[in-house]
């Protein structure tokens, strides 16, 4: 009996060794179909559309004719784009000291004393600079810093640049709690901060980090204007739902972002990069500065959409959207946003 059993096992082993089994052919059709399905889903993700649906708190844009409400909003956006000046009721004016301060920060010759003098002209900016200089991130001693010049030295140019960008942009996103604005402002600010971080990350050793940070921070200014107009025109239960509204509002919002940044005299590379984002039928050369901002916008949109449960946390979404070129850099950037967000969540903050 044992001899028979041993002979049988030996025969099975010989039989297995004589058959060439390609493991990759195991359930080949099922596996291949699943892979193609995942690729198709990833490639079909429209980041801009998903993000605008999140911002406006709607489920989906559909192929229907634009409503009268949508038409009025689009007409208002056209009037803004054609006007020679921006309505201060729609968008707050940039503090007068900011353009001069930005110019000084771009110069390597600017001293701490000069920067302190310029910052001292804006009480809000003074308060924010001293507040940040006294934060644990910058200062570890128990003695409080009250001197503006000392605070400027502690922050350094890098810290000042980011602080100014945040101080300049934050009030823009504090729209009134209208029907659309009360949620939209949080999503738009969150994505703008993420985009600023991502732009700066992707620009390392390639482009000016502050220009990149500023461009990322400014990318949603036009959408904030659109949300304000939506709130102003909203009379009842109207909600934008047409694909026509989505594409036209997105295009006009991008144009407004570029127009507002130009009006604020942002640095030329920032203006050029924002202008390149207005073409919805393509994207900038991803090796250019405009391409860096484009990629940062996609990465930051994915980050926020994942946190809000609008899309799955699938890293392939970035690869299919931005291509294989620089994919490692994009994945590291996405991981960096998640790291910052994780650290921030420990401080009871939702976004970076």
What does this structure look like?
The chain has 352 residues and is mainly alpha-helical. It folds into two domains: 64-83 and 177-343; 93-174, no CATH class. The protein contains 16 helices and no strands. Helix 6 (112-119) packs across helix 8. It is globular, with a radius of gyration of 26 Å. The relative contact order is 0.12. The model is unreliable at 1-27 (pLDDT under 50).
Distance between the termini: 72 Å
What does the average pLDDT come to? 81
Please tell me the total number of domains.
2
- What Rg do the Cα atoms give? 26 Å
Largest sheet, strands/sense/barrel = none
Descriptive key words:
mainly alpha, 352 residues, 2 domains, globular, single chain, 16 helices
What is this entry, summarized?
The chain is mostly helical. It contains 16 helices and no strands.
How do the helices and strands line up, and which of them pair or pack?
Blueprint: H1 2-17, H2 28-44, H3 47-55, H4 68-82, H5 97-106, H6 112-119, H7 123-133, H8 148-173, H9 181-202, H10 209-218, H11 221-233, H12 243-263, H13 268-276, H14 289-307, H15 316-322, H16 327-345
């Amino acid at each position: 009996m044992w001899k028979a059993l041993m002979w049988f096992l030996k025969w099975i082993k010989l039989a297995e060794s004589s058959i060439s089994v390609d493991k990759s052919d195991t359930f080949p059709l099922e596996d291949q179909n699943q892979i193609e399905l995942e690729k198709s889903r990833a490639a079909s993700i429209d980041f801009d559309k998903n993000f605008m649906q999140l911002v406006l708190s709607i489920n989906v844009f559909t192929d229907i004719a634009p409503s009268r409400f949508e038409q009025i909003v689009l007409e208002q956006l056209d009037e803004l784009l054609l006007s020679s000046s921006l309505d201060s009721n729609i968008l707050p004016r940039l503090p007068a000291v900011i353009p001069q301060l930005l110019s000084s920060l771009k110069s390597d010759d600017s001293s701490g004393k000069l920067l302190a003098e310029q910052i001292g002209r804006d009480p809000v900016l003074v308060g924010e600079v001293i507040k940040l200089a006294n934060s644990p991130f910058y200062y570890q001693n128990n003695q409080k810093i009250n001197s503006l010049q000392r605070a400027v030295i502690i922050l350094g140019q890098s810290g000042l640049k980011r602080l100014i960008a945040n101080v300049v942009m934050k009030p823009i996103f504090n729209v009134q709690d209208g029907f659309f604005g009360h949620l939209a402002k949080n999503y738009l600010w969150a994505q703008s901060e993420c985009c600023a971080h991502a732009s700066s990350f992707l620009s390392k050793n390639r482009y000016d980090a502050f220009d990149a940070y500023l461009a990322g921070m400014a990318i949603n200014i036009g959408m904030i204007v659109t949300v304000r107009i939506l709130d102003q025109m909203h009379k009842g239960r109207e909600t934008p739902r047409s694909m026509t509204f989505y594409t036209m509002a997105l295009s006009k919002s991008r144009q407004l972002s570029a127009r507002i940044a130009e009006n604020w005299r942002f640095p030329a590379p920032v203006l050029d990069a924002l202008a390149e984002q207005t073409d919805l039928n393509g994207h900038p050369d991803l090796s250019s500065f405009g391409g860096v901002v484009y990629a940062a916008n996609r990465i930051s949109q994915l980050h926020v959409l994942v946190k809000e449960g609008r899309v799955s946390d699938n890293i392939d979404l970035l690869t299919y959207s931005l291509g294989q070129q620089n994919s490692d850099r994009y994945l590291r950037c996405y991981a960096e946003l998640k790291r910052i967000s994780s650290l921030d969540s420990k401080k009871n903050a939702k976004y970076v």
